[in-house]
Amino acid sequence: MKKIKLLLAALAVFACTGFVFAQENMIAHGDFEGADIKEWIAEGSTITLPAGKGVNGSTALLVRGKYNWSGVGKDLTKMNVCDGSDYYVEVWFKLDPADKGKRKSDVALAIQPDDISEEDYDNFIYMGLDPEDSYTGSSVDINNKEYVKVNGVLKGDVILEELHGRKSVSSIIYFKTDNPARPYYIDNVIIKKIK
Q1: pLDDT digits (tens, 9 = 90+) for 9-53
Q2: Which string of b and e fits 89-104 if b means at least 16 CB within 10 Å?
Q3: Measured between alpha carbons, how far is 168 from 81 in angstroms, rounded to an integer?
Q4: Can you say how many angstroms the Cα of residue 109 is from the centroid of all Cα atoms in its chain?
Q5: Residue 140's closest CA among 76, 71, 91, 70?
Q6: E-assigned strands of the chain?
Q7: How far apart are CA 139 and CA 176, in angstroms?
Q8: The pLDDT of residue 113 is above 50
Q9: What is the mean pLDDT of the chain?
Q10: What angle (nearest 5°) sits at the alpha carbon of residue 40, between those of residues 37 and 41?
Q11: What is the radius of gyration, based on Cα positions, of the chain?
Q12: What phi and psi, each to the nearest 5 degrees, are found at residue 41?
């Protein structure tokens, strides 16, 4: 537990130091108050909006069912997140009370370049949150007792480097855990462009 607290403290310092945001939260209903299920992508999972389950006792998004690797996602294509800018991402995870184990969270931006078909998932670009510049950069231990914040930065220069001059056909950010059979909650999703 001490290790988790130290890691979270380090992430909090990293996330709050010196950022100036170019805009407010890009995610409408990021706190899921007044949200519509249709705003979210559930691939193989069932999603609901139970009241009283959020970070502050408000509404949260419950993801359950045997989903594939992607968990639940939000389409960011029209928001042009492949413009070379850095984007700050924050989300709160909690396991369902029935899950007695510990899991790892993960956040990944899946980008489809224009020369790759929609079915060719293996050749999509997958970006986790920095500072790792990798798919596992956002992995943090979560539990069924309390919400845990996962945050970091999607680096614009790294995304452009991975695209190699190609355009992005679609950009979807996914929030998931390391066990696709276990239900979990997400709440207070924030994505902001950094100046």
Answers
A1: 334 434 444 678 877 899 999 999 988 999 999 877 889 999 999
A2: bbbbbbbeeebeeebb
A3: 9
A4: 8
A5: 91
A6: 41-42, 46-48, 61-64, 72-75, 86-95, 103-113, 125-128, 141-142, 148-154, 168-177, 184-194
A7: 10
A8: yes
A9: 84
A10: 120
A11: 16
A12: -105, 120
Which of 178, 1, 182 is CA-nearest to residue 98?
182
Q: pLDDT digit string (tens) for 47-103?
A: 999 999 999 889 999 998 766 667 899 999 999 999 999 999 999 999 999 888 888
Sheet holding 46-48, edge to edge: 46-48, 61-64, 184-194, 86-95, 148-154
132 has a pLDDT exceeding 60: no
Give the type of residue at 113.
P
Q: Phi/psi at 129 (nearest 5 deg)?
A: -80, 140
pTM score of the predicted model: 0.84
Query: Among all chains, which residue has been given the structure tokens 């999972």?
Result: 45
